[in-house]
């Protein structure tokens, strides 16, 4: 392997420590701890693991945690009613409804019902619009985590050619907006892009968020490029056990790239660290306190 390994686990631990210190300062100034409400609907095993990790990380950072577990058959009306209660609860600075939701619930309606001030996932249309127009916004955690890794690796991103593969509202689009905000030259590519390998080959920075295991190959990558892999795909192995792979063919791409995130241990841990960061930012704004610069 020739590429530098970008250690998302270490970066996430360091951000979580910064959040812990700043949460203590917030508690002294505001007379209460910042609060995060998590909502898990149903029994999806991966979602249960992610929410457990979020609750654990919340406690370790000194934030107050309010967890709500609803059963699989919960109606949209009941979930909207819980969101309304959490919007009104002064102890709650951030509301996280874990996705995906069961099919009887319209996720867009639920996201729209979350107060934009408490939308620590950054999925509400108001936060998306604020990000797109360069205003202070709560920014989706995964792209924010990618940006923090890119800044730590490359410093100034201005003038870099960045290709984001994937156009989802949760990762691709906000990632592009964040990179534009850094004065990078940004292309958003996707499954229908003509000559996708040729487009990606122009990039100094590649962010892969397509959800297709090991789709990005070594001959797509400009030598020395920085590659951020957002994919988390579970694939079956010959021994029947299965393993996690990203959207990037790591073993071959790491021979060409200048730096690369692994899966696991790259972007994933930053998603949870940025959720804590967003909760602290939301708490400061709601309390009328200045958000610490280092966050
Ligand atoms: N409301 C939300 N729902 C979902 C989000 C989100 O940001 N908000 N993102 C994903 C899942 N997710 C967080 O919720 C998440 C996924 C993966 C990781 C992570 O740390 N992954 C590890 C590997 C974990 C494993 O072994 O399975 C890694 O990449 O190192 C954190 C958070 C969908 N839903």
From TrEMBL:
<dbReference type="GO" id="GO:0004477">
    <property type="term" value="F:methenyltetrahydrofolate cyclohydrolase activity"/>
</dbReference>
<dbReference type="InterPro" id="IPR046346">
    <property type="entry name" value="Aminoacid_DH-like_N_sf"/>
</dbReference>
<protein>
    <recommendedName>
        <fullName>Bifunctional protein FolD</fullName>
        <ecNumber>1.5.1.5</ecNumber>
        <ecNumber>3.5.4.9</ecNumber>
    </recommendedName>
</protein>
<dbReference type="GO" id="GO:0004488">
    <property type="term" value="F:methylenetetrahydrofolate dehydrogenase (NADP+) activity"/>
</dbReference>
<keyword id="KW-0368">Histidine biosynthesis</keyword>
<comment type="similarity">
    <text>Belongs to the tetrahydrofolate dehydrogenase/cyclohydrolase family.</text>
</comment>
<dbReference type="GO" id="GO:0006164">
    <property type="term" value="P:purine nucleotide biosynthetic process"/>
</dbReference>
<dbReference type="Pfam" id="PF02882">
    <property type="entry name" value="THF_DHG_CYH_C"/>
</dbReference>
<feature type="domain" description="Tetrahydrofolate dehydrogenase/cyclohydrolase catalytic">
    <location>
        <begin position="6"/>
        <end position="121"/>
    </location>
</feature>
<comment type="pathway">
    <text>One-carbon metabolism; tetrahydrofolate interconversion.</text>
</comment>
<feature type="domain" description="Tetrahydrofolate dehydrogenase/cyclohydrolase NAD(P)-binding">
    <location>
        <begin position="140"/>
        <end position="286"/>
    </location>
</feature>
<comment type="subunit">
    <text>Homodimer.</text>
</comment>
<keyword id="KW-0554">One-carbon metabolism</keyword>
<keyword id="KW-0511">Multifunctional enzyme</keyword>
<comment type="function">
    <text>Catalyzes the oxidation of 5,10-methylenetetrahydrofolate to 5,10-methenyltetrahydrofolate and then the hydrolysis of 5,10-methenyltetrahydrofolate to 10-formyltetrahydrofolate.</text>
</comment>
<dbReference type="GO" id="GO:0000105">
    <property type="term" value="P:L-histidine biosynthetic process"/>
</dbReference>
<keyword id="KW-0486">Methionine biosynthesis</keyword>
<dbReference type="GO" id="GO:0005829">
    <property type="term" value="C:cytosol"/>
</dbReference>
<dbReference type="GO" id="GO:0035999">
    <property type="term" value="P:tetrahydrofolate interconversion"/>
</dbReference>
<dbReference type="GO" id="GO:0009086">
    <property type="term" value="P:methionine biosynthetic process"/>
</dbReference>
<keyword id="KW-0560">Oxidoreductase</keyword>
<dbReference type="InterPro" id="IPR000672">
    <property type="entry name" value="THF_DH/CycHdrlase"/>
</dbReference>
<dbReference type="InterPro" id="IPR036291">
    <property type="entry name" value="NAD(P)-bd_dom_sf"/>
</dbReference>
<keyword id="KW-0521">NADP</keyword>
<dbReference type="InterPro" id="IPR020867">
    <property type="entry name" value="THF_DH/CycHdrlase_CS"/>
</dbReference>
<keyword id="KW-0658">Purine biosynthesis</keyword>
<keyword id="KW-0028">Amino-acid biosynthesis</keyword>
<feature type="binding site">
    <location>
        <position position="232"/>
    </location>
    <ligand>
        <name>NADP(+)</name>
    </ligand>
</feature>
<dbReference type="Pfam" id="PF00763">
    <property type="entry name" value="THF_DHG_CYH"/>
</dbReference>
<feature type="binding site">
    <location>
        <begin position="166"/>
        <end position="168"/>
    </location>
    <ligand>
        <name>NADP(+)</name>
    </ligand>
</feature>
<dbReference type="InterPro" id="IPR020630">
    <property type="entry name" value="THF_DH/CycHdrlase_cat_dom"/>
</dbReference>
<dbReference type="InterPro" id="IPR020631">
    <property type="entry name" value="THF_DH/CycHdrlase_NAD-bd_dom"/>
</dbReference>
<keyword id="KW-0378">Hydrolase</keyword>
